[in-house]
Amino acid sequence: MNGLRALYRRLDALQRRRSFKLAATALALLVCGLTWGRLILTTVDLDGQRRALVTAMTGQNLNDEDEHAVSLAKTGLVTVNGRTYGGERFAARPDLLFAADGSIDAVDGLANAMLRDQYPGWAPRWLLEQPGTTWMLALVTTGWLLLIIWMNATLPFTLTLAATAAFVGAAALAGSRRWMWAFGGMGLLTFTFLLLIRVMLLLLERPNQTLAIAHTVIKEASRTKIALVFIILILVLLPLLPLGLDPESPLRYQIQTFISRSLGFTFYLAACMTLFLSCATVAFEIRDRQIWQLLTKPVSRFNYLLGKWLGVITVNMVIMLIAAVSIFTYIQFLREQPVASGMQGFQDAQQVQDVVLTARVGRQPAYERPTIEQLRGGVEATIDRTPELSILDEVPLSVRRKLEQDFMESWFVGQRSVPPGAMREYIFRDLGAAKELQSSLTLRYRFHIMRDDEHETFPAVFVFNNNPDLSVRRTYVPTVSHVVSIPSEFIRDDGTLSITVVNLFEPPSQRRGAGALNFEADDFELLYKVGSFEGNFARAIVVDWIKLAFLAMLGICCATFLSFPVACLTSFTIFVAGTIGPFLATSLDQYYPPSLEAVDWGNVGMVIQWAFKSTIRGIAQAIVFLLDSFGKYRPTQSLVEGRLIPWGAVIGGGLKVGVIWSGLSLIVGYLVLRHRQLAIYSGHG
Prior knowledge:
Elements: H1 2-15, H2 18-57, H3 67-75, E1 77-80, E2 83-86, H4 88-91, H5 94-97, H6 107-115, H7 125-128, H8 131-150, H9 154-173, H10 177-203, H11 209-221, H12 225-237, H13 251-287, H14 291-295, H15 301-335, H16 342-356, E3 359-363, H17 372-385, H18 387-390, H19 397-415, E4 417-418, E5 423-428, H20 432-437, E6 441-445, E7 458-464, E8 467-476, E9 482-486, E10 497-503, E11 517-518, E12 524-531, H21 533-559, H22 564-579, H23 581-588, H24 604-632, H25 635-640, H26 647-674
Antiparallel strand pairs: 1-2, 3-12, 4-11, 5-10, 6-9, 6-12, 7-8, 7-10
Helix pairs in contact: 2-6, 2-8, 9-10, 10-12, 10-15, 11-15, 12-13, 13-15, 13-16, 13-21, 13-22, 15-21, 15-26, 17-19, 21-22, 21-26, 22-24, 23-24
């Protein structure tokens, strides 16, 4: 044992020598240059060919007998710049390659599929198809190695690598590729977390009160059991999440499930760690009277609270950064795991690109709104049909507003219904951007019909721009989301697109009139790509980190005037209330206490019921007003659905949640701490 310790000391002294660091840096740069340089050159060459293929196939139409379209349909080959791409497998299923109007469908995905014969076996496919990601990972890997060398972590890295390799080797012998990824992820994530913590501690070693307190909080987080439990859970369990995926399900569902579970798991565990750590770091110092030693340095109360907050959000930043790299890398690994062979596998992979790993915006049809006369007439008709209202000399304003709301809802519900054997046209507007970007559209729909039995299927037809030649027939399962790909050429010059839904269901003779097709307001929309998944993913991580920053200041604020258990309970209650804020807002639309005019004040039971409902509604309204925005920012859901997270939402969330809410919490905590007699605090309560 003494010999091992002596060897470790000698190796540790070696890694700290400047000559060793310079030699290791040169070696790291050489290795990264040879590996990543070769990969980048290959990626750039393939990207040039991909662009040429996309340019050549864009606008080609089989009905117009364009050269590349005809060649693709007959032979499965396309010749561009003297090179021939494709093969017979593409000609075998022309129905999957061409849209209803004869244009080539999913040109980007088809170009990637044609180039895969040129992919070298030593390179990951997902890197070859994403030059930007390749450059990013090359820089991250190189920077990571340089940090290891210059932070005197070469020896710990070598030992961690050896231990990780042993577990990965055992998994390889067992033939489990997923366990290989899991063990490798555990080792690398744990080491990277410790490395980044050392970097943050180094950056905060400055003669500044706020930075000094933040430095102490980071050390506290890496030592105390409260924070370590959650950090270890994240680092160990995150690589295990892929083991729960169903390998037999479609690839897009696997990726959506992994995104939802991994980001949700990381955020909620990090949120728990944040609340416990932020409450503990202040409450325990007040309880043990350590805070008095700090505030007599002198350290201002404002700088004290700000330093605590900075330390907690720095730990959160490290956790979110490590989790983001881990999740993003495994998503890229998943995207090249097709679950079907041939064209079916190509179609599944294309759905991943067009539906999940993208950033899309949605457009809903423009519904006709009722006129003022129609609205008033509908409300009056309802009043006349309701005996309780028709006998009143004057209907209360709150009741009339509720009737107007009900009429508007039934009006739009009627427009979202198609009787059996009938059709209804829907107009989508503001699609000019999609036409300019030449971005293919995706129609997402989820219909309800009859008993909504998921074991039954029903037929429907979609007719585009009232042209029977531009129509597709689909069989759908009730309550299940389906998609239809639509080329951007279908968009009219004025930026509109007409889609007529034909309900082909024929109800049984004994139930004539039944079988209307209907859908909810959010279940019939057009989506088109406006950005990349990589940028969308980065914005999602930033939004989650902003929410964690607010939770950190919330916990610190509560701990300034509450004991640790009560501060945790209070902050967790606010966290849960903010999370369910959007659901409360939806429930409030259906929860109305009786109006004052309708209350029989001589009926004690009715008065108690009115008071109870009014109190509950008031509490719910207060929660929605104060915390609704916290729950509205749900970046994970947007990523799962492939929807754009705009920078406007990120900046708006940062200002509202990260600046205003956190700032108000800081001010409250400062005012409490300023008027509190910390020197004579008993330590109880």
